[in-house]
Amino acid sequence: MHTPEFVTKPRSHTVWEKQCVRLHCTISGWPEPRVVWYKNNVSIDPMSKPGKYKLESSYNVHSLEINRCDFDDTAQYRVSAMNSKGENSAFASVVVKRFKGEFDESLPSPRLPPCLEYGVTFETHIVEKFGVSFGREGETLSLGCSVIIYPSLQRFQPEIEWYRDDKLLVPSKWVQTHWSGDRATLTLTHLNKEDEGLYTLRVITKSSFETHSAYVFVRDADAEVAGAPGAPLDVHCQDANKDYVIVTWKQPAVDGGSAILGYFVDRCEVGTTHWAQCNDTPVKFARFPVTGLVEGRSYVFRVRAVNKAGMSHPSRVSESVAAMDPADRTRKGASAPWTGQIIVTEEEPVEGVVPGRPRDLTVIEATKNYVVLSWKPPGDKGHEGVMYYVEKCVSGTDSWQRVNTEIPVKSPRFALFDLAEGKSYCFRVRCCNSAGVGEPSDPTEATTVGDKLDIPSAPGRVVPTRNTDTSVVVSWEGSREAKELVGYYIEDSIVGSNSWEPCNNKPVKGTRFVCHGLTTGESYVFRVRAVNAAGISEFSQESEAIEVKAAIASPAPPYGINVLECVRDSMVLAWKQPTFIGGADITGYFVDYREVIGGVPGKWHEANIRSVSERAYRVSELKENMLYQFQVRAANMAGVGIPSLPSETFKCEEWTIAVPGPPHDLQVQEVRKNSLVLLWKPPVYQGRDVVNGYYIDIKEAEAEFEMWRGVNEKATNKTFMKIKDLKEGESYVFRVRAQNKAGVGKASEPTEPVEAVTKPGTAEIVVNVDDDGVISLNFECSNLNADSKFVWSKNYVEMTEPERMTLETKGSKSKAIFNTPSEDDLGIYSCFVTHTDGASASYTLSEEALKELLKVSHDHKFPIIPLKTELAVELLEKGRVRFWLQAEKISANGKVEYVFNDNMISQGEKYKMNFDKNTGIIEMFMESLGKEDEGTFTFQLQDGKATNQSSLVLIGDVFKQLQKESEFQRKEWHRKQGPHFVEYLGYEVTPECCVRLKCKVGNMKKDSVALWYKDGREVKVNEKLDFSEGVLTLEITQISKKDAGIYEVVLKDDRGKDTSTLNLTDQGFKELMNQVFSVIANSSTPLKIQSTEEGIRLYSFVSYYNDELHVTWHHKDAAIAFTERIKSGVVGEQLWLQISEPTEKDKGKYAIEFFDGKGGLRRTVELAGQAFDDAYAEFQRLKAAAIAERNRARVAGGLPDVVTIQEGKALNLTCNISGDPVPEVTWLKNEREMVSDDHYILKFESGKFASFTITSVNTSDSGKYSILVKNKYGTESGDFTVSVFMPDEEPGKKK
């Protein structure tokens, strides 16, 4: 049994693209070794790319075949052989090259060299840039920019490079890059905190390069256990040796709310998926030596943090590292590059010389877990490689122990474990080779086992400064005397929240950091901690609070310089406000000018020493007919900005044109989805006459110059205009032209593009009238900043010190209060908020609106208690009278006075008052009304200064009717004390045309009786009375005239009686019958058409027919006069109209009309066209069929079914025959026609009688006989059977 050995090692190859390459080796060993092939230390799985790799093993010969090689196959390949006795590996490199010349279209596009066109200068612009981005662990994040390169040459492609924290990124499973020809994209496929940092895109051309940078923040993923810490990050491997690796990492910024107890390190062998925990107890130091590795194998590592709540997610895995002696790793080399030579050298054996002493032995790292030694090889090490033995002894003794007794190490570094914490040790090293072991090195100084690295001190003063609307720059003093500092973590907290959030999840090494993702307008405090391998420091002191808003900077340069007026020695300039004002109001502008002589500009001169606040300025003391250029600088509290670009060259000469110059200072306010307001200032140069109007032009921002069109056909004399009918989402530009009597002048400079859209949060001016009647205009803005101001204007002229209004602003709200509103205040009021995205609105105070507001103001000053209802009267039970009204709202201090005919009345025997202040209901009750109560009743209300009253006039007929109704209600109440009718006797007609007399009764007892009468005679009711339902009924079925009469119901018991009468005579009975007729009519079915043998019948069905029902038939809207040919009638519930032998005159619209005493009901049918033709054809068919049925040939009777007769007898049968014309008669025997002869005598007499005679019957006459009669209308037959028997046989038996 022995470890695997390579008899033949694999050989390196350089091949052309698309060729195949085969690596093979011969391996010996027992037990038979397991062989695994690796590409760049990643095991090769043939199934992952079918057809790409082919592995074979036969008789100790092992091979790897790579088909159709491409660039990705350029790598270092390793074959590993392992059995129970050990492992051995061999390496070979494969380099894939591409043919020079034409490229295969199926291959990736080649990387072309930079364009070498002589004299070409490329301009590079990065647009659609990515900004500060936020992601969460596990998510995918893409960054991208569009790149414009001019001139665009198809054969030239720029170099695209991506950097993170100034380190070049290369594609991997974590990072993917893409260049489409005009857009560069970087995709982070699975975010981890290692991906946090400053990302930079660099676009490199022959001429220059352009860059763009932005920060990417990665937040922790949600913990699996609430309160668990964040995952560690930046796991790396250091000092890898044959059996150990030192793993380092960085602590997370988030501890989950409780201190991190330590970290667990996990390892996984490359090519497997099994993770093994390396330490049993958590370690606090952010470095840990992992031992027990198998030499020659590759491993990856990860780290997990733990606190009292639980375990964090694992970190991102480290890069793979091989467990081997560093000297071997150096000799083997890293992965081969894709070009160049691969040189494999082997040392030739020479005569051995004992090596000398190692030099410069030092302890480079000491912790409580391990000590790392480092030294230099001896100067006289002989001609062969040397190895080393490490020895230790306790300080103060001379007892040296060899640490690596079995196998000497080849690397001049070594880590010692299992040292006693707190003890002091000395160390020394010996060299050895085949010639022997050399002398020991000088021992190290005494080293005490323990952590030599201290946790850094807390950082110093933290100073936040404003940056943008969502970010703050945080600076701090670094930790003093901090060793091996990894970086700093910054946290923020909204003032008063006591909740801290990390600003970064990856330590930053500087002492300045931009914290992004903050809320505009909120105040924050910040604190900082330092990090090294020993741990995280205490927090610094909290910074001062700072409000998040944009920092103040000097403004950007103005632009759009143009001339408004020119005279012999001066020019009036105008310009546009800078696009960026620096976060503070612009305090003024400075203008410079210079002469241009012969196309060569001179030196700049200041035109104004003091700043000017307007965006227009007259530059004086110029020279006539000279050419000048101008530049303008804007200033704010942060300073003076850089100057604008030089203007066009203008000639100083006096304008003599008749028309006015251009208006200037165009501004846009109140932008909405379909309208906006345009403001401008009049031209400085008036022309030969004063300006008398303006024209506004508009065009889409992207439209050509020729697309300018006018907004107003008639010139406006105002310097503002509301432009309507805009298309939502479209961007527009505007310009203004002034006119005088001489004509229309030059157009102003166009505005910047304005998109017609109503921004979220847009507010309008609200008119309010308070409780004191004060009228005010109110405007609220939600996106204010500290420098914002509300600017109120009337007719778009700012009201700086208004006499008729008072302006008040509190927080985000501002109001303009009218002091004494009158017609002098009519106009357009607008409010504009500075330092916002254009928050503005307006309100037009018209004459009608002012009148309405003054009315509301008067009502508020002199309030009236609002009433839900005016004073009203109603009758209650027993005829009591209730006067009442209801106020909408009244306080507990409200009072009421009751007045009758101008006299106060109060609570007493006659009047009862009630005032419910919760509901606002005021009531007054009277038991009855007398003649003295005729007059006017008034309720007078008072609640503070608010008053109201309501009156009710009860005189004349109104009073008499109320008094009569009150008396009636009183009597009704007394009636209802005994059995009484709730509903008096009436009737209803059911759908079945039954008449049901009914009444509803109440207050009945068991001994109460109800008696029915007709014409004074009692009617016995079959059904038992049931008073529980309270309804008494009497049904009359099939009503007729005999049922007419006067019906009466009497209720009585010991408490009294009540009577109800129903008159069903004369008119009453007539109305009842009309209702019956109406039910019958409504039950009728639509008219149908039916053909008969006599003609055509029209009919309708009703649910019930009454003989009193009056029905009229109509033809063509005229009543039908009935004749023998046209008849009507009733059969059961069918009403019909029979038209015999119909003709063309019978066509038309037919109707049946039911009379019910009102409008009646008519059913119609159209007997014409196809309907008539179909009915007439069916009539003809039925008529012919009837005639045929009557006249067809028939055998009327006389023939038996069976005749049994004795032989020798005579048989005579006769039957009746009918039919017109006279039928033909044929006799058959056994389906064969018979002929009359002496034996068979066949006769047909008088056309009615047919006889059949057999003169002497014999046995041959037995059989089936038939008579067949036939005429043109039909055929019929009669059958009979003749059975002949011998005299000595019994009848019924066949012979």
Structure description:
This protein has 1295 residues and is mainly beta. The chain has 5 helices and 99 strands. Strands 45, 46, 47, 49, 50 and 51 form a 6-stranded antiparallel beta sheet that branches. A 5-stranded mixed beta sheet has the order 2-9-8-4-5, with no helix packed on it. Strands 11-18-17-13-14 form a 5-stranded mixed beta sheet, with no helix packed on it. Strand 76 and strand 77 form a beta hairpin. The protein is extended, with a radius of gyration of 59 Å. About 3% of the residues have low confidence. This is Myomesin-1. It comes from Culter alburnus (Topmouth culter). It is found in: Cytoplasm. InterPro entries: FN3_dom, FN3_sf, Ig-like_dom, Ig-like_dom_sf, Ig-like_fold, Ig_I-set, Ig_sub, Ig_sub2. GO terms for molecular function: identical protein binding; structural molecule activity.
